[in-house]
Amino acid sequence: MTHLFKSEKVQYLCTCGSLKPLCRTFFCRHCLALKCGDCVFHEVDILYCSNCLENVPPGEARVKKNQCSECFECPVCDQLLLTRATNIQVPSTEDPSKLVPKKMFYLVCGFCRWTTREAGLPDQPSATGSWPDSDNANSTRVAALLEHYRSLAQLDKFEKEQKRQLKRRSNYLSFTAVSDKYSLSALAARKRSGLPFSGSLGMKKETPQIYKVESAVASEETDDALDPDIFTKVLTLSSVTTIDQRIRQSERQPVKSEDLIPIHKFLSVRRSQRCRFCEHNLSKPEYNPSSIKFKIHLGAFYHVPDVIIFRLSREDMQLRLCNRSQYPTHVRLLSLDQFSSIAHLKIEELERSVGEAEKEKKSASSMVGHELCESPATQAANLRTCLTNALKEKVNAFFQLPSEQILLPARDDLAEYELTAPQNLKDDPKAVLWRKGNKVVVSTPLTVLDDEMEEKRAGFVFEFGAVRAGFETKEVQPQPTNVYIPVFISLGKI
Amino acid sequence: MDSLTLSTAKIANGAIVCCECELQGDITIGSRTVIHPRAKIIALLGPIVIGENNIIEEQVQIINNGEDTMVIGNNNVFEVDCRVESKKIGDNNIVESKAFVGRQTSLSNGCVIGAKCEVLVHETLQEGSLFYGSGPDVKRRVQSDKPSAQGAQIEFLSKVLPNYHRIRKPMV
């Protein structure tokens, strides 16, 4: 599905100034603005194993080094290892002379047919959880280093806190430091020279101690000396590991392929996205790892009309518009010049109302949530950045756009199956060529600036009515606000 | 049923060879070998000798376009739509779906040619050689244990195939 709509031909101008296909953007219904993946907050919602779909809490994941304890990957080719059962004959516990069948398990790769038997690992009596973990030879050193850096971080934090306290105190000091009675001037001198606060004032907190760690010493002899056979015997490539395979097991880095052991599968992360400006959630998946649904999903695909090139030629250029939102909307296609004049007017109007708002003594810092998004100052700023970004884009072809508003009906899943006559809408037959359900095809003949054979690019600005979030619940009919989104279309060499 | 009249294939007792498969030229098929419908075995110049307990699935192409005899051993599996032109194939090999084994390559025993792998190397593959990956990124390694025998599958096919397909009579 993504692939079908992920065309790079039609690109929408995001609030941050980058161009993205519609299905790669979000539409914040509070700010009424496009947000792409590069200009939203990404938050880790859950960590889970993509194979066994087990949800792992973040604390536990850190202890397990972000690995699943049950699932393994092939050390040779990175595919998932499957558990296979075999029956072996073992002496019975009651009568050692008799043999009874016993189920044993081993891991096998379905792709390159590597098995744990090749690594010399014995078969396990239970299917999961009993595989031995590789012990890291450097684990004590790593732990010591970790401890050292943790203590450094603590000290850093402590100093920052103290600086903040000193700052708070500095006003008081400037009054009292004149007298040396309490040795405060020494303290002030220390502070001026940038030295840390010595604590002579009787600070309650103690400075955290730095965990000392011995520095590593280079030695002449190393453990991983080359095998002398390597110079005399013919090397069989299949018996040594590749660089990729060694890096994948970075703590062991086996040289021989028989030393490869299964790798724990790394956990995957499910993210939620948040608008940077108003901090509302744009996308929030359900917590259950096996569910692919969203609790909140403000993909622009479902809220902003979609454009595709319906027919591509100079005289007979046609665009198809499609509205996938649940509200009908009026769309107007504006040229970039029209947009700039409209935007200038709007900005003036908004700035006038900013002045009025200031009279009511509402500063931006006191506003929260809805108020901030809807404040005229924000809207004016948004419109201005949108305009400057849109005018930066290079275009060398122009559409002759229909001048009238076009109604795009709301999405109706049943409309596909109903054979009702199309609604009698007063469309300009020259502009609107065809209409079915929530889709409209408009005629937009092209004017090309230069006739040279080069890539042609044209742009226009969508003006459409969007309903701000939070208004649907009210009894009054939702009042759509006009939103302007510039769209740029690569037309190729025509 | 052109293949019925054209071919002079020698089919041993117990082999299951569907009538819809295409056999051309001098072909010998060993007992308990199963050949699915739509498989193509073509001996253009030299003969093809197929051993026992082999499975040759749909759309497999086994072609001998040289003058020497092409010998296929026992217990081999040729999966759907693979193409084999190799002169010599030993025992217990698996050629997976869409794989291609060229004329210069000979398989010894217990080799596996992975799905979509094209193997054209000028050598006789070492026992237990294994190719995996696809396109330009085919990798090889040697595995220690042999591919498991397909006895149960052959038994099942010999029971089921005659229920739905016409089977060629053994001809020695």
From TrEMBL, chain A:
Its keywords, alphabetically, are:
Acetylation, Coiled coil, Cytoplasm, Cytoskeleton, Isopeptide bond, Phosphoprotein, Ubl conjugation
Family from the record: Belongs to the dynactin subunit 4 family.
- Subcellular location(s) of the protein: Cytoplasm, Cell cortex; Cytoplasm, Cytoskeleton, Microtubule organizing center, Centrosome; Cytoplasm, Cytoskeleton, Stress fiber; Cytoplasm, Myofibril
Which Gene Ontology cellular component annotation is one that this UniProt entry carries? stress fiber
Q: InterPro entries in the record, alphabetically? A: DCTN4
Quaternary structure and interacting proteins, as annotated: Subunit of dynactin, a multiprotein complex part of a tripartite complex with dynein and a adapter, such as BICDL1, BICD2 or HOOK3. The dynactin complex is built around ACTR1A/ACTB filament and consists of an actin-related filament composed of a shoulder domain, a pointed end and a barbed end. Its length is defined by its flexible shoulder domain. The soulder is composed of 2 DCTN1 subunits, 4 DCTN2 and 2 DCTN3. The 4 DCNT2 (via N-terminus) bind the ACTR1A filament and act as molecular rulers to determine the length. The pointed end is important for binding dynein-dynactin cargo adapters.
- Keyword Membrane in record: no
**Pfam families given for it?**
Dynactin_p62
Protein name, UniProt field: Dynactin subunit 4
Q: What is its main location?
A: cytoplasm
Automatic annotation (TrEMBL), chain B:
- What are this entry's molecular-function GO terms? dynein complex binding
* Annotated GO biological process: mitotic spindle organization
Q: Which UniProt keywords apply?
A: Cytoplasm, Cytoskeleton
Q: Which CDD domains match?
A: LbH_Dynactin_6
UniProt GO cellular component terms: dynactin complex
SUPFAM superfamilies named in the record = Trimeric LpxA-like enzymes
Which positions, given as ranges, span the membrane? none
Localization (cell): Cytoplasm, Cytoskeleton
Keyword Cytoplasm, does the record have it?
A: yes
Q: What is its main location?
A: cytoplasm
* PANTHER family (UniProt xref): DYNACTIN 6 (PTHR13072), DYNACTIN SUBUNIT 6 (PTHR13072:SF0)
What does the sequence similarity comment in the record state about its family? Belongs to the dynactin subunits 5/6 family. Dynactin subunit 6 subfamily.
Function, as annotated, reads: Part of the dynactin complex that activates the molecular motor dynein for ultra-processive transport along microtubules.
Q: What is this protein called?
A: Dynactin subunit 6
Q: Which organism is it from?
A: Daphnia galeata
